[in-house]
Amino acid sequence: MNRRDFLRLTGISGISFLLWQTDLAGRSRRRKPNIVFLILDELGYYELSCMGHPIMETPNIDRVAAEGMRFTQMLAGAPVCAPTRSTLMTGKHMGHTSVRRNPGHEALRAEDVTVAQVLKKAGYATGGFGKWGVGGRGTTGVPEKHGFDVFLGYYDQVHAHTFFPAWLVRNSEEVPLKGNTGALYEGETFSHQVIFEESMKFIRQNKDRPFFCYCPWTPPHGAWGLPEDEPSWQKYKDKQWDAGYSIRKDEAQRYAAMVNMIDRQIGQIIDLLKELKIDDHTIVFVCGDNGGNTYFANKTHPHGFFGPNVDPKTGTVFRGRKGLLYEGGLRIPFVVRWPGRIRAGAVNKHLGYFPDVMPTLAELAGIDCPDDIDGISILPALLGRRAAGRAQKKHEYLYWEFVGQTAVRWGNWKAYKPRKGDWELYDLSRDIEEQNNVAAQNRDTLAKMIKFAERSHTPHVPGEILDEQMCMKDHTKAKNPKPSERRR
Question: Predicted confidence band at 484 (pLDDT cuts at 50, 70, 90)?
Answer without folding.
Answer: very low
